[in-house]
Design goal:
The protein is α/β, with parallel strands linked by helices and 805 residues long. It has 22 helices and 27 strands. A hairpin with a 2-residue loop joins strand 9 and strand 10. The radius of gyration is 28 Å and the shape is globular.
Amino acid sequence: MRNKYYLPQVFVVSALSLSFSLAASAQEKNIYHKGWIDFNKNGKMDVFEDPSQTIDKRVADLVSQMTVEEKTCQMATLYGYKRVLKDEMPVPNWKNEVWKDGIANIDEELNNLTSHTDDAPTQYSYPFSKHASAINTIQKWFVEETRMGIPVDFTNEGIHGLNHDRATPLPAPISIGSTFDKELVYQAGKTVGREAKALGYTNVYAPILDPARDQRWGRVVECYGEDPFHIAEMGKQMVLGIQEGGVASTLKHFAVYSVPKGGRDGSARTDPHVAPREMHQLYLYPFRRVILEAHPMGVMSSYNDWDGVPITGSYYFLTQLLRQQFGFDGYVVSDSEAVEFLYSKHHVAADYKEAVRQAVEAGLNVRTNFTMPQTFIMPLRELIKENRISMKIIDTRVSEVLKVKFRLGLFDSPYVKDPKAADKIVHTDADKAMSLKMNRESMVLLKNADNLLPLDKKKYPNILVTGPLAKETNYAVSRYGPSHNPVTTVLDGIKNYVGGDAKVSYAKGCDMIDATWPESEIIETPLTAQEQAGVDSAVAQAKQSDIVIAVVGEDVDRVGESLSRTGLNLPGRQLKLIQALQATGKPVVMVMINGQPLTINWENKYVPAILEAWFPSVQSGQVIAETLFGDNNPGGRLPITFPKTTGQLEYNFPFKPSSQAEQGGQNSWGKTSVKGALYPYGYGLSYTTFEYSNLQVSPEKGNSQGLVQVSVDVTNTGQRKGDDVVQLYLKDEVSSVTTYEYDLRGFDRVTLNPGEKKTIQFTLHPDDLALLDKNMNWTVEPGKFQVMIGSSSVDIKLKKEFEVE
């Protein structure tokens, strides 16, 4: 159990006293008037203080009144308490700090993150109303105690749910991607945005739009999947949901971030080998679509390079692509150390000051790093003084930041209006139900030989739960999500579910890894006496049981940021455990908790039932039990390809014609490679069956700017209620440049009762048919297209052609 953190009582008193003194100060200065606030404290309503003026006029007026010191402070992040900021509440010495002239944003302020890499305990995170009041106190300091009174943008992470103490938790993004449920993602985004607003945050760093196309990469767990269309559709809904609550959504990580050479993260994270056309079609596609269709107010620039140019120092990426082509009109914040890496890693700048110049001129608005903001602000001021960067550029960058603050309403209502309401708004019963539904929908059934699942409690009175993840909880708590929510383990979930109807035993079986892992993946070592005893204990109990539920996979130290892998087998001795359990002759159900595809070839061949749970949230044990015993019919689909071996990589969807072809056929011979995917993109089984019929495409001939309507009937032909994910793929039969074999261009998750039939409608837009031609222009070429309806990217059920004239 983690220690609770308390401030000395004297400090609490002084913080509260300061709060009262700030309020008194405001009254003395009388800056709060009916309908407006005198931010610059000059006794009159300036244009920027007048809510009736346009945002552009207000921004221009404010910038015209700002000093260089104030402008440069609007270009840096102050990392919150316990990261960089040393004080929970404002103290007198803040008048001597660089932020006496303001600050662009304060990140992760008082969120009480629990992480073994980045712990930040605070007394102000809970109750929720206490945090809202604390944020108000800090905001009041900036409004009342700085000359121009510019409010702060309070930013926070949000890919697993809002990164705040006891906020509503979501499963990992790879789990969210597996739901293929756009409406549910929108609801999740609304929850994140509403909770952020109630707690005092004004900007959420979510979603991640990076296509995870190297399964070895550690951050696969934080992505929606590998297909750009699917990512764009899910990401769009998350942005719309977050921003509906009146807070900003900041997209991550722009751009070409998710494919460092060899999938290496950690100290590498560079040198993606991506061709220009592929970059636009795969890696930029989600950003372009989401910016055009959802209008996020923020984008985070990544710290990698592309084709020799670091993204954060690239005018092409941050200005030409992002603003001029995609129409982005928010502000760009750097990922941590992205500016520093221009100098320290990429070596395109002779010193840090030159790195600052390159980043700002490229289009960066705000620098973020785990250092004091003056490490960026002072070199920037020197550059201005030395005439090495123009005031026009500075004014533009600052204006873009301020425009977002005006759009957020910070110059009309800078405070949380009703802090006490946060206790009723954050993590409600409805939020818990939404989170539970998302966890249920993320379950993917990979194998179910002879319909072993769902389990019948009456048939299996003695159940063994084993494996290193049966009692683990750390996968349910993310560095980028809520902390301190109670977690139901898989073991407890199964015990709670069966109650007195069955006896549940437990044996760990093996640890997550062995002593020499990951070296043991290439140089195998014999089991130690202790390891053998652990396996033997599980086997002995398995022989006394009617069914074995083995919970295996990865924990937070095996997958995640900086944790790329060189092999994708089950870590440590887990396969040895599975093999020993399978040898008992008792039926084995393998539950996988993991953040990336694993090469479970032996397991897939011999273990009769496999459930992919990914990294579920805090209700993991409950949801997994409900799924194993049939209350939850798994309807999730894989948003990423499972290869059979890392030797196949790159291996994913979509792919170019013949690029993933096997040996055999014209000009091909031999038998030196394993064939095919272990599980293809879009794959997932159910406890019921579905049938597709009556595919209609209209018009069968049309022009390049018209819409194409597609409909198909889907029927539940089984005996159970269940969800199907109807997938529409589109093939351009002949094109001027090589296109992908076929692309995902529509999906819809539908719930059907036994015997029920529904008609699913899709609309294909010109953008869905477009390609990048030889001149790198998006265009719809005349010719024939084939619509394909399937239950996965390889299980195509129906096809129909239409023609663009």
